[in-house]
Amino acid sequence: MSDTASPAVIRRADYAQPAFLIDSVALEFDLVPERTIVKNTMRLRRNPDGAPGARLELMGEALELVSVALNGVPHAEHRAHEHGLTVENLPDAFELTIVSACQPAENTTLSGLYVSSGNFFTQCEAEGFRRITYFLDRPDVMAIYTVTLRADKAAYPVLLSNGNLVEEGELPDGRHFAKWEDPFKKPSYLFALVAGKLVAIEERIRSGSGKEKLLQVWVEPHDLDKTRHAMDSLINSIRWDEARFGLELDLDRFMIVAVSDFNMGAMENKGLNIFNTKYVLANPETATDTDFANVEAVVGHEYFHNWTGNRITCRDWFQLSLKEGLTVFRDQEFSADMQGGDTDEAARAVKRIEDVRALRQFQFAEDAGPMAHPVRPESYVEINNFYTMTVYEKGAEVVRMYQTLFGRDGFRRGMDLYFKRHDGQAVTCDDFRLALADANGRDLTQFERWYSQAGTPRVSVRTAYDSAQRRYAVTLTQHYGDCAPAARETQTGPLLIPFALGLIGRDGRDVPLRLEGETQAAGTTRVLELTEAEQTFTFVDVAEAPLPSLLRNFSAPVVVEYDYTNDELAFLLAHDSDPFNRWEAGQRLATRELLALTARAAASEPLSLDDSVVAAFARVLTDESLSPAFRELALILPSEAYLAEQMAESNPAAVHAARQFMRKRLATALRAEWLAVYERHTASGPYEPTPKATGHRALKNLALAYLAELDDPVDAIRLANAQYDAANNMTDRAAALAALLAAATTAGAAAAQPALDDFYRRFENEPLVIDKWFAMQAMQRGSLDRRIIDVVGKLMAHPAFTLRNPNRARSLIFSFCTHNPAQFHAEDGSGYAFWAEQVIALDALNPQVAARLARSLELWRRYTPALRERMREALERVASQVKSRDVREVVEKALA
Ligand code: 0A1
Ligand code: ZN
Question: Name one GO molecular function term (predicted).
Fold first, then answer.
């Protein structure tokens, strides 16, 4: 944390190579919570390609300098300052030994070395290593590390670091030590150590080439029964990376460690991944199907970083998407393959739909606001603010477009060339793009704009059918619409947009496609390459006017503008062979209805829903040929946040009223169908987290949620109570509780109270489950006589609540501020006042978490005037009191 008044802006254009390089580092830790001593012995040499100059500028933060020695001799020519340590009068190659101290027990930022539940952990990405020792803490300085850990043996029996354990033993006074060597050079952000009372499950496997590997998942002793799924996910990840990309685990030993205090999801430290407990621990009693899927995805993500991130890393932090976009793409493909193999398109589509839904709800919103930035940002004040949906999720879409353009084989050729050229290096997004281009014999110069332009592109579509000539012309126009100023200033020209399209005949079948100039039809989905501002693609030999299926499988991260009629959308929902677009048709239909309803609600006009819309949803609900997982996704209405985003002026209360109206209408009109679906998909027998069983539970629990919307929710209350009592898994138990909370809005709070109390008692000793308990209450609907801000206020005083644990803070505060828009945006501004108070309180403890919360008001300019004014006041209050660079950057950009 730093208290600068006008924090410095770091620019991509200013990149310069380091003046010195570090070949090796030997770190010795004397681990004591109050004051840990770190002895750091580095072999340095002047970088022949770096800027000349005699000084060595090492970064350091929150450190106490003890001593400096050059080649073993005390060296007086140094100066410690706010940002680090300057050392002068140095030869071209030398050994520098620095001893310093830090205070892990006091470290509430969870960056650097800190204590959680009495154990030691580190988090070094992006710039935490400088809080452990003075260093060239930048990713293009890669060194070989040897680490010796010394600590009290009774308190810290387990001592872990990166790489291989080479020595361990006893020391006087009840202390012991362990020495670790990492054979691969790495940037400092991948350093890690863990020390404490932990236990592990282990597996020994043979990797593709036959070498034995030791795999471990380390947790606190009481969590050992929640590690199996993480271990299975790790083994599946290792197998998948071998099969799909020919990438093998390069270490003899690979460890995952769970920690309950963690700012993000997990961290890919070389050979020693450190995970938020939320993404490791899972057993049927405590984790939902979504939790199981998230564990699999995050274990995969961190494991895949071993090649995309660790073996090849980023030259500088502007290149963050080089590793993150690519690794998210890899984890998405892994999860899709685990769902449906690589051939079951309908099963794979479930994952695709979930990913696109998140992208559109959160990344599109980011791209429309004051924090909009390109996938490769041009500048930042605090790099921790750039671990964003844009860098991660839009970055993954950009990587996916290479695969869409070149096919899986072409993408693999590009990856192979990337590793051949750059293994062991710190490189840029351009290097990745060039490897893909060269391996496929293509010029991808224009494609760079996906990395440099912010804002969500829009593609407008016009079609014309000429029955005499049997020609069908599709004209695509790309533009950015009315986008945020932060995005506008980055836009320089048209993008290369892979636009996948199919044409559907009146019989509901795909039409074989033949473009003008081709001799015969080939395939039923074509990837058109849109490279100009406007282009027309003409299909010939088209017997009747078709219906276009646009942007199949969401082939590019854009918004498609095309005026389908409701009947056409209903037809696509029933017939499109592309499962993604089938879902998309239902979403478009619902979005259009909901926006119309919102306008009426805002004008206090009566609401009504066309029978044809109800009928379209009824067909999906009762279509047994569709998988339950797909039906569930198709029957969930677009979220309130997504809908508010689509409006010129967001009005959360009206959106909520509209969406609730439609849910109630679908519940009432289809009551018998929901009940039948509930019964049919209720399984007995042991819990299994398989895609099939997960799909049945999802659909059944959606039916329960709809039934809870009825004016008289007796059925829902009866079924939910029975389900709650009989549940053998958290998915069903939590869904039952959520349904009771929803039913309580009409039936009275007493309907949910017994289950709510039981849930707390039952899981009192399971922090991740108690997080759910807080979150469900923070996200519940309010009523005229029950404001959820009051519920949240009471829960803030609950003995189990603490601001210091990020998961807990997120479960209550973030759930309310970002997942309960109708209550958060109360007209009286009470939500905003609460937000300001919490941002300021968190800022003093943990700026990274505070900055995330700060972002929930960044779209303030897009709301109705009364709300806008109150939001601005809250932002100004925070701006006047905030201390950290992290929060300052967010609120200043919002107010600018
Ligand atoms: N590289 C990690 C994300 C991460 C980033 C920063 C952290 O601490 C500030 C922690 C984790 C990933 O992509 O999984
Ligand atoms: Zn990552």
Answer: zinc ion binding
